[in-house]
Amino acid sequence: MRTLLVEGLEPRAVGHYDAAPLIRETLLVYSFGAEIRTEVARSLPVRGDPSTLRHTLVNLLVNCAAHAPGSDLTVTGSREDGAVTVRVADSGPRTRASGPRSGRRGIGLALSRRLLAEEGGSVELVANAAGRGHVAEVRLVAAGRPGEVGPPESGRDRDR
């Protein structure tokens, strides 16, 4: 299993890329019919492998569809404290089933954590401060100068 999940992703193309269009494209393709509110900066230069961020976002969207169907989703992307932060927030139930009883092993999030850590990033799942749901916070290594990041583009994407 490890060979398939980890080595199957290699070779990895670590370099500089703009995370903003990748976030938008991933949401467009993998929204699973959900309405997603987006606030993503125009440009988010990062260092890493684009497939790592794509894999992580798809995993988070799959988790939202499975554990918080029909909930409101918000995805934000900005530069904060020298890093690029992408947040995926849902308004679903606070408790998510995982482990042997639910038939889910959480390997997608574990793999995302490992790949992001190899690139100097991270992903954390916390309770949503709004009172319902969860927020997944993905931190990536920023590239370029802070002035290169444009203002947020806001939008509401529906039923892709």
Description:
The protein is of the alpha+beta class. 28% of the residues lie in helices and 32% in strands. It has one domain (19-157): Heat Shock Protein 90. The protein is built from 4 helices and 8 strands, in the order αβαββαββαβββ. Strands 1, 2, 3, 4, 5, 6, 7 and 8 form an 8-stranded mixed beta sheet that branches. Helix 2 packs parallel to helix 3 (50-67) and helix 3 (50-67) packs antiparallel against helix 4. The chain is globular. The protein starts with a helix and ends with a strand. Residues 1-8, 96-103 and 146-160 have low confidence and may be disordered.
List the helices and strands and how they pair.
Blueprint: H1 2-5, E1 15-18, H2 19-29, E2 36-41, E3 45-48, H3 50-67, E4 73-80, E5 83-90, H4 107-118, E6 122-127, E7 134-142, E8 152-157
Parallel strand pairs: 2-4
Antiparallel strand pairs: 1-3, 2-8, 3-7, 4-5, 5-7, 6-7
Question: What's this entry about, in short?
Answer:
By secondary structure, the protein is α+β, with helices and mostly antiparallel strands. It has helices at 2-5, 19-29, 50-67, 107-118, and strands at residues 15-18, 36-41, 45-48, 73-80, 83-90, 122-127, 134-142, 152-157.
